[in-house]
Design brief:
Length: 223
Amino acid sequence: MARILLVEDDKNLGLSLKERLECEGYAIDWAESIKRATEMALTGPDLVILDWMLPDGQGHDFLTKLRKQGQKMPVIFLTAKVDLVDKILGLELGANDYMTKPFEPRELLARIRVQLRGPKNFETDGSEPILVGPLRIDVPKHKVSFRGNDVALVKKEFELLHLLAESPEKVFSRDEILNKVWGYDAFPTTRTVDTHIMMLRQKTHDDLIETVRSVGYRLKILV
């Protein structure tokens, strides 16, 4: 179970976030000041959600202290500040992500999952080839073949197929695919996923990737 340090002095927001995150299976330590957050950070949380303005200082001061201490856990700023200069400052000081209030809780949850999972490096993955029925993905060589025939894929097509093939028969929602393959910084849409799925089907087989209506896509194990 991942442990999250929530640093937020707004009692209503802090309580609602704590309850929501606990429902998602996270253990939450909630601090309403930098002083208390500093004490809780000693336990080594897996991630920090950090408000910018706090009663006894600014969140970026706490972030600076964490990084000087060698603490490398992901930090997501959660703040009402919308100026670009503030966002740049937070990121330059070592924040991993930045969300402005008001925000959609589902987006925050997705960003938390991204940070806890860490970036996926499709290019340098040193694993053995993935075999799913007649589909073969040679990750180190960035090559794909289907029923013995080479399949030429562009980068995102390869990453999408790689994702699906790692968990054959598992249904991935469009939002999950966007999150894991493109990431939020790219600002793609679900139509992007649909287009890439269509291209993969054209280059491999129409039945390889199944559409699960109103849910998403899954890779089928063909013979």
